[in-house]
Amino acid sequence: MGTFSLDPGADQLAVRDWLHGFAADVMRPAAAEWDEREETPWPIIQEAARLGVYSPDFYAQQYFDPSGVGIPIAMEELFWGDAGIGLAIVGTTLAAVAVLANGTDEQIGTWAPQMFGTPGDVKVAAFCSSEPDAGSDVSALRTRAVYDEAKDEWVLNGTKTWATNGGIAAVHVVVATVDPRLGARGQASFVVPPGTPGLSQGQKFKKHGIRASHTAEVVLDGVRVPGHCLLGGREKLTERLARAREGARKGGGRGNAAMATFEASRPAVGAQAIGIARAAYEVALDYAKTRVQFGRPIIDNQGVAFQLADMRTRIDASRLLVWRASWMAATNQPFTSAEGSMSKLYAGETAKWVTAQAMQILGGNGFTREYPVERMHRDSAIYSIFEGTSEIQRLVIARAISGLPIR
Ligand SMILES: Cc1cc2nc3c(=O)[nH]c(=O)nc-3n(C[C@H](O)[C@H](O)[C@H](O)COP(=O)(O)OP(=O)(O)OC[C@H]3O[C@@H](n4cnc5c(N)ncnc54)[C@H](O)[C@@H]3O)c2cc1C
Predict the structure, then answer these.
(1) How far apart are CA 209 and CA 214, in angstroms?
(2) What is residue 27's DSSP assignment?
(3) Terminal C-alpha separation, the chain
(4) Tens of pLDDT along 115-144?
(5) Which residue's CA is the closest to the ligand 1 atom numbered 31?
């Protein structure tokens, strides 16, 4: 087991500084514009690809960093730059991680490069799990995958919603039900290759925050994908379904494998929230030191100074939780108290709270689009909703610490 350390080491610090430069010089100046346009910032993604910030190799390097902090450091810096553009850049990794977690080596080798494209021809990817009637309750998916043995093809039918990059992606990863009687354990993930007929974009959502990130419905109407697009392969699925049927007969619950994957991916989302919170805190701290009222900087009032003290304390506490959980994932430790969910819960709620305090410290200016905290506050709101709402994180933690099937 690797030792937990708060010193990321020279390599990680160099990556952090490099990403910080990109966030400050490329993302920040473009943030307000793309928030207003509510469009995918292709030129920024292209620039990220040109510089190596957007490539499968870069994320693989961070993902496999043995200390576990590669991904949290990268996420925090990019989202410090801007959350909407940040998500437009890293949205592809949601789909990439699904392939990494469930795919064979061959599938990873085939699909990861196609998800990102090349610096000269940049692509994005989408992960499509949520449906209109299956959000928090992922066991309720209605999208069906039926195997056509004669053609060795899977046929997908259903409607996905809330898909980041849905419809504009080159590669879509779709979670579908193979055996509806088994709930979440009867599901499998499929790659839908670029240009596959039957897949189309439904409505694109107009959002409160992270508006540079494209979010849309994805309609699957008789989508046929080759047998090799089933992530993990048919043999593994057959074995898994047999185990699930056996478990269901014995009254067993949901597999631990899916939970372990969630626990391992949630700290990365928590790190994004920390980036937003840190950015808003820095603006508020600067403002409090320079804004003069009643003949002195407003930070001279304990009411303001203590707010900043609490903001900084919660940000640092969030980072400690995120790094702990990321280190646990990297060193394959069991999340006995749902430490991954804890980190996402706390960091997400912290981002919402810190950005609200920042707006208050900026007074009227905080309420306008002349200052970035208004946007950061809107962006932070998603962090108690996606990748499992705060309530679902609490549910998972409550079950883990009690061992009870709390509903
Ligand atoms: C901008 C954006 C991007 C997204 N990107 C993706 C993506 O790329 N891919 C993807 O598959 N999905 C994506 N999602 C979907 C996201 O994960 C879901 O919105 C989220 O899981 C919540 O599901 P829901 O919206 O259906 O809410 P619901 O599940 O309907 O929940 C509504 C409310 O009820 C509460 N609630 C539900 N069940 C319980 C319970 N048992 N106990 C207590 N409270 C409960 C929830 O916490 C919430 O407050 C995205 C969503 C958004 C908004």
Answers:
(1) 11
(2) I
(3) 34
(4) 999 999 999 999 999 999 999 999 999 999
(5) 136
126: CA distance to ligand 1 center in Å?
Answer: 17
* Ligand 1, pocket-test mutation among 165, 389, 395, 397, most atoms within 8 A of CB: 389
387 has catalytic annotation: yes
Beta carbons of 344 and 267 less than 8 angstroms apart: yes
Q: Using the CB atoms, write b or e for 109-134: b if 16+ within 10 Å.
A: ebbbeebbbeeeebbbbbbbbbbeeb
How many helices, marked H, and strands, marked E, lie in the chain? 14, 11
| List 77, 131, 217, 387, catalytic entry | 387
- Dist CA 46 CA 56 (whole Å): 14
Name, in order, each residue with C-beta under 8 angstroms of 165's C-beta and a sequence gap of 6 or more. Answer: 40, 91, 92, 95, 124, 125, 126, 213, 214
Contact 381 CB / ligand 1 (< 6 Å) = no
Proportion of the chain above pLDDT 90, given as a percent: 92
Structure tokens at 386: 């996606």
Question: 200: closest CA among 215, 220, 182, 185?
Answer: 220
Averaged over 376-387, what is the pLDDT? 98
CB 127 near ligand 1, within 6 Å: yes
Which segments within 184-331 are labelled E, that is strand? 187-192, 199-204, 215-226, 292-293, 296-297
Atom of ligand 1 nearest to the CA of 130: 11
Q: What is the pTM of this model?
A: 0.97
Q: Is 350 exposed, middle or buried (0-12, 13-18, 19+ CB in 10 A)?
A: buried
The whole-number pLDDT of residue 256 equals 57
| pLDDT over 70, % of the chain | 98
- Residue 152: partners with Cβ closer than 8 Å, 6 or more residues away: 226, 227
